[in-house]
Amino acid sequence: MPPGRVPLLRRAWWAVLDWWYAARWQLRSTGPTTAEDYRTGTGQPVVVVPGVYETWHFMRPLMDALHDAGHPVHVLPVLRHNLRPVPESAREVLAYLEEQDLRGVLVVAHSKGGLIGKYAMTLPEGERIDRMVAVSTPFGGSVYARLAPVPHLRAFRAADPVLAALGRDLAVNARITSVYGVFDTLIPGGSELAGATNVRVPVGGHFRILGAEQTREVVLDAAGGSGPSAPRDSR
């Protein structure tokens, strides 16, 4: 169903479910699980990059699936709640890859994390990144960003210089899988990315898509080494 045709009441209900999901995972971030618990495994190394205001705990549904499949999963506590500019955070990601000597990396990202991942892939040091699965990423910006009260949210305007430059750079798109729902409460324009593998899953919202079975399947498929061979849309 195209975003514009989703009934208003259904959008409102999805928004309630979405923010409830987000609140629960914020609370879970105080739990006993540590980042070190995920770093064991012999499969392809994975680095997770969450969205703005999110800690790595938001990514745990996908991290659990990847780790259970034998992949060492890395997080970057230095990003904290991910409020810094995209270029700065992208360089932190690349610095971590070099420090840990990680190569052939799969980046699994949510929201702003996908912008950070793509920016890192466009830099010379980004050759350490094999591919990325980005979930609910505002590759084309969000119409709500111009109303945002703080600069780190206004940076999601389509006209923002960093976002616009990323949009013009198509070189790495073939190595990106963009996963998004039937309607995103924060990115109403959607997350389709030209030249990428675009996968739309039957979930409404921005956050709870991280816990969807279909999202886990896409991530595990990418971690299995198949990667995107040609642009497609699973609609």
From TrEMBL:
Hydrolase in keyword set: yes
Gene Ontology molecular functions: hydrolase activity
InterPro entries: AB_hydrolase_fold
Gene3D superfamilies: alpha/beta hydrolase (3.40.50.1820)
Keyword entries, A-Z: Hydrolase
Source superkingdom: Bacteria
Protein name: Alpha/beta hydrolase
